[in-house]
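User: For my dataset I need records formatted as: sequence, then structure tokens, nothing else. Please produce one.
Assistant:
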Amino acid sequence: MEFNDEILNQYEPGEFRRGQIVKGTVIGKEEDGIVVDFGGKSEGFVPEGELIRPMDDYKIGEELTLQILNLNYEERSTLSEKRPIFRKTMEELRKLYEEGKPVKARIVSQAKGGYNVVLKGVVPAFLPGSHSLLKREEPFPREEIEVLILDMAHTRRGTRIVVSRKAIQERKVDEFFSEKKTGDVVECTVRRINPSGIEVEVSDGIRGFIPRSELSYDTRITPEDVVQVGQKVTAKIIELDKDRRSVVLSLKQLMPDPWNKVEEKYPVGKVVSGEVTSIHPFGFFVRLEPGVEGLVPRSEVFWGNSRKNLEDVVKVGDLVKVEVINVDRENRKLTLSYRKAKGDPWENIEDRYHVGNTVAGRVISIIRQGVFVELEEGIEGFVPISELSWKRVDSPEEVVKVGEKVKVKIMNLDKENRRLSLSIKRTQENPWKRALEELEKDSIVRGTVKKVVNSGVIVQVEEYDVEGFVPNNHLVSEPEEGKLLNLVVLRIDPDEIFGGRMILSEKRFEERMNIEEYKKKVEEESYQKSLGDLLKNGE
């Protein structure tokens, strides 16, 4: 082969020879290489395997340094871009290997156990799969990557070079955890978003996490509101764990803290607007601005001792006015008052309500002793069980239900102690008025047994919307609910609380009937005797 080359060289023009270094200009591209003009009688061709860079990187008109591999004046000559710099590149690579410095590499194909790569676009090397940071089933990157030379071994075929991408990454990770400290600011890329926070890539091989609580001072914000996958963000390192190779970062610590000026913006006594964010048994929270929320305690919702549910007053999302009543910047707490911002309804209550007035209200709660009636928000009064009806009431539920609208009469107003005494029955006509006018002692009435008690029976008096009481010792028949009794009034008196009281007797009625029957019998006997005497005398 060397003999034939020498013979061929004798027939080549004196200006060119095989192995000569020449300048060539790119004049075209083909599927497997580029076409150049190197000044010869025919054009030159540089196969893709003899190029330093990917073919797409070459531009028409670009000048290259080439070595002639084969001269062919009838067709075209073959040239190489790699050959002129191969020896120099090998020297550079050996120096980089000895100094432990990285080198640029381009993957050209998959091979058994790894990948074939080209270093500096010239020197072939091998990248083991375990050192590639690549998945076998995925396509390998076309752009250049950084690698570290692990070994340069001489063989009969030349120098065999083994490189590692993983070693570069491990070195970068070690450098990161050695150089970085808490408080440093880094740029990272969002890789994954989940409800608890954001996973980011700080650099190759270094993953970090931004907890949801560190996204913003606005606690209601979600990760999706802040970032998107693939987005680059600047974050502050708040925790480094070298052993676990973990990094915790914060976005909000690079933002101005709204609590720094909270005392200036929200002084005690100031009325401000905010949005209801959550409701709890102990109160509700109001968001004044992103990152600043305050609590309205239950005691600062109502002016009275209301038993209302907070959801009946406000809903999540409502815009409300509140008054600032306490600022604790150190513990990031604001205490707010809903009722003070609305104004105290008891302040001028005497202008709206007077003793003796009849007003409308709504039953808001019922207890054994009576019912509470709300006249307006913050103003409620109490109706004792004795003031519910002119009739006997055992349970308030017999008369009213929660939520029912009722008319009440104001019996007493105590502004200092915030108390209103009300009456429902006094808004109605007193049925005892007619009974007291028309009935008296010894009057005869009829009554239906309404209830049997230990000491007697309670009866509903016919023709009068009142109740009377028949003691056991004044009953003749066996007491039974619904039974109609003939009765005599033993006593009837007016009563300030119940309107009146009436004591009745079935026994007295029976006695009276017996006397009337006796009188009638005596009269009949007397009449018959007189008639007999007359007839006798007439004979």
